[in-house]
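Subject: design request, 273 residues
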């Protein structure tokens, strides 16, 4: 049932300068369920194929003015028709140059007098190959489009991350990220490092919030509000600098459950004043 539907949709162009052969082959193909167009010379065949490319072309070799080999060469030189499969038609008593037929772009050949079984087999075989090629081409086009979209998305992500990293490193306020479970710092920007009197990020990272904080009551309040509200805003507390001196700071923090961390902004109150 499905094959019959596909055959009905297939459009075949038949090219032969002999009207009797043209009628016979066209009737045979139409009876098998194909949509058939027929022309009697090479020039008309090229114009017809260019105007509405068929799914398959049956092309007689021995024609006046322009033979089948020449017609096929023109078809393969055109963007519109180069992918249309061409089956050559040759009489048994004619010389069929098979090497030349394939060299100019033909995919198969049938001989006169026509055998319905042979015509159907060769036509359907090449139509099936063509359908598979088109399907593969469409899949490749979709894949290339998807790759292009992903590349653009990755480029935007890289640009976005670069902008974020620039803002993070050059922010006028201290910023850090810490694990929710143990308060261990995993990231700190340059402003926080300088604020605490350190020279390198490694000196701050792997310390805990408890290591940096002096006011335990404020630390407890911050953790309580983070657990109940998911955030804390403008909490005043004291941090300990590297040399042990206290520094008054204001912290705003937010929980990031997806990354299992808290993100905090630290402002040096004394400096701000």
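Subject: RE: design request

Done. Sequence follows.
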């Amino acid at each position: 049932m499905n094959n019959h539907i596909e055959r009905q949709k297939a459009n075949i162009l038949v090219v032969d300068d002999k009207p009797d052969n043209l009628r016979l082959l066209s009737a045979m193909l139409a009876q098998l369920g194909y949509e058939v167009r027929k022309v009697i010379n090479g020039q008309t065949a090229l114009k017809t194929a260019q105007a509405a490319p068929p799914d398959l072309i049956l092309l007689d070799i021995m024609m006046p003015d322009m033979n089948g080999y020449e017609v096929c060469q023109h078809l393969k030189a055109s963007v519109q028709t180069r992918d249309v499969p061409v089956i050559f038609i040759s009489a048994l008593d004619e010389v069929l140059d098979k090497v030349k037929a394939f060299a100019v772009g033909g995919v198969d050949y049938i001989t006169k007098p026509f055998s319905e079984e042979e015509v159907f087999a060769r036509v359907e075989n090449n139509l099936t190959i063509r359908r598979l090629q088109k399907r593969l081409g469409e899949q490749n086009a979709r894949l290339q489009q998807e790759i292009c979209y992903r590349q653009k998305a990755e480029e935007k992500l890289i640009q976005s991350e670069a902008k974020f990293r620039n803002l993070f490193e050059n922010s006028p306020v201290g910023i850090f990220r810490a694990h929710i479970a143990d308060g261990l710092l995993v990231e700190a920007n340059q402003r926080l490092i300088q604020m605490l009197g350190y020279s390198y990020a490694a000196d701050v990272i792997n310390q805990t919030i408890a290591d940096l904080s002096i006011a335990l009551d404020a630390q407890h309040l911050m953790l309580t509000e983070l657990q109940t509200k998911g955030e804390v805003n403008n909490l005043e507390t004291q941090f300990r600098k590297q040399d042990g001196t206290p520094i008054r700071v204001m912290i705003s923090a937010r929980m990031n459950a997806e990354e299992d961390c808290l993100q905090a902004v630290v402002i040096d109150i004394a400096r701000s004043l």
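The longest strand covers residues 246-256.
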